[in-house]
Amino acid sequence: MQSLTDLEKKLLEVRKLQSQVDKKKAELDKQIRQLLQNKSELDKLMEQARQKESLVQCQIVELKSLEVRTHPPEVEYFATGASKSLQNNLLNLLSGNGSVAIRLLKHQQQINPGKSANWYWEKVIYDLKRDRHC
User: Fold this and answer.
1) Which one of 85, 97, 104, 105 has the fewest CB atoms closer than 10 angstroms to its CB?
2) Which positions ≥6 away from 83 have C-beta within 8 Å?
3) What's residue 26's pLDDT?
4) pLDDT tens, 54-75?
5) Cβ atoms 92, 124 nearer than 8 A
6) Backbone phi, psi, residue 83, to 5°
């Protein structure tokens, strides 16, 4: 009978171990479910991020096309060597009217040949400001 008690003890130990294994398995299953839920949430966030990135890319393209429209090719020709701040300043004074800017720059080139690009832009800006303050 003594051996039966030893077997019963071992059976109890096996059952305890089986119970511990079942508990660990349940914990791992719970963690796996949580990880899958987190993955699903991350996938949703990634999709939202891709959509926002796409929207921003579209806005950048749109802004670049607007920038090109506010600086006609002729103005870019005259802008060679002129600083961006001068270009923006003149176009702001003329409410974005590039054709007027071209006309004024060409006129200054005709009456003052051989000057630097910045000089022509500065002269036109100076004259516009001077004439508006009279």
Assistant:
1) 85
2) 118, 121
3) 96
4) 888 888 887 776 655 555 555 6
5) no
6) -75, 150
User: Closest Cα to residue 86, out of 63, 64, 65, 104?
Assistant: 104
Q: What is the pTM of this model?
A: 0.44
Q: In the predicted model, what is the mean pLDDT of residues 34-44? A: 95
Question: In angstroms, rounded to a whole number, what is the distance separating the alpha carbons of residues 53 and 42?
Answer: 16
**Stated length of the chain:** 134
Q: 52 — phi, psi (to 5°)?
A: -65, -40
What does the block give as tokens for 80?
A: 């060679």
The 3 state secondary structure assigned to the chain is: CHHHHHHHHHHHHHHHHHHHHHHHHHHHHHHHHHHHHHHHHHHHHHHHHHHHHHHHHHHHHHHHHHHHHHCCHHHHHHHCCCCHHHHHHHHHHCCCCHHHHHHHHHHHHHHCCCCCHHHHHHHHHHHHHHHHCC
Q: What is the CA radius of gyration of the chain?
A: 38
